[in-house]
Write a structure and sequence with these properties.
single chain, binds manganese (II) ion, mainly beta, seven-stranded antiparallel beta sheet
């Protein structure tokens, strides 16, 4: 066992809007070298840093009906609440601390909005949307939806009243996460008190990174990672530590690379160009089902 080092610490890029409700900083795959191949199986990471939305009671902000095929969309809510509906019958509202894990697989239509309650009240909004690629053999499987409330997520205490590690997926110190995944993926929210130190042991070949959602941290006692910054780890070593220099929330991602060809176009991520063309054809022919705007 050896130490997993920080390869680079990245500041958030200029934000852009997805629809009119999601003001996001993209970390994967645009710029910075965090390509789909480098971060495999994580193929997209949009981070909505904390941002105040005024009340919009007459119309919920968000993004209207659109398709996905070939991967999973994972939404982690930190502030505010997101409503979701999809053509597979999945739907619901996720709020602070909850996670929505949608397996688009062979294809769904969905829409993502601020919840009605949040639209009426307004307030701080903060979320992550991550796309996790599916192995080729699972890309055309049946769509699936996992609504994971915060209460369902195992919380592993950190020594010396340091806080907790919430195990969204994978496992932490032998404790399994709430979500089921198609390939080995660890996803944790470390919620640390000031001075808390959490240790991690993740395989050297897994692509691994972390995003500081609240507060600020020091990794391996040497690398400062400020608020809203992403730290990428090298693919050597297994062990790293996080020390919270104030009360902090840190999203940790680590996945076994699929090492399969990637053909990506907009909302479709497949293995070949022909499969992308087929996705467009199937979408135009209504094979993704129906969903009202
Ligand atoms: Mn979507």
């Amino acid at each position: 066992m050896s130490v997993k080092q920080v390869e680079i610490v990245l500041a958030p890029r200029e934000p852009h809007y997805v629809g009119d409700g999601f003001r996001v900083h993209n970390f994967i795959p645009s710029g910075y070298g965090l390509t789909m191949q480098r971060m495999d199986p994580f193929i997209m990471l949009d981070y909505g840093a904390k941002f105040y939305f005024p009340p919009s009671p007459s119309k919920a902000k968000g993004v209207g009906v659109h398709p996905h095929r070939g991967f999973e969309t994972v939404t982690v809510a930190y502030k505010g609440s997101v409503a979701h509906h999809d053509s597979g019958g999945g739907g619901g509202v996720i709020s602070e601390g909850d996670v929505q894990w949608m397996t688009a697989a062979s294809g769904v239509l969905h829409k993502e909005y601020h919840s009605d309650a949040f639209s009426k009240s307004g307030g701080d909004f903060q979320m992550v949307q991550l796309w996790v690629n599916l192995p080729a053999k699972d890309k055309m499987s049946i769509p699936k939806y996992q609504a994971i409330s915060n209460a369902q997520i195992p919380k592993i205490p950190i020594a010396n009243n340091g806080g907790v590690v919430e195990v969204i997926a994978g496992s932490y110190e032998g404790n399994s996460g709430a979500a089921t995944t198609f390939s080995p993926v660890h996803m944790f929210n470390a919620k640390l008190n000031k001075g808390g130190v959490a240790q991690f042991n993740l395989p050297s070949n897994f692509n691994t990174g972390l995003l500081v959602i609240e507060g600020s941290i020091i990794v391996n006692e040497t690398e400062d990672v400020p608020l809203d910054h992403f730290a990428l780890f090298t693919n050597t070593g297994e062990l790293f530590s996080i020390t919270a220099t104030e009360d902090s929330v840190v999203l940790i991602l680590s996945g076994a690379p699929l090492r399969e060809p990637i053909a990506a176009h907009g909302p479709f991520v497949m293995n070949t160009r022909a499969e992308i063309m087929q996705a467009f054809e199937d979408y135009e022919n209504g094979k993704f089902g129906t969903l009202e705007d």
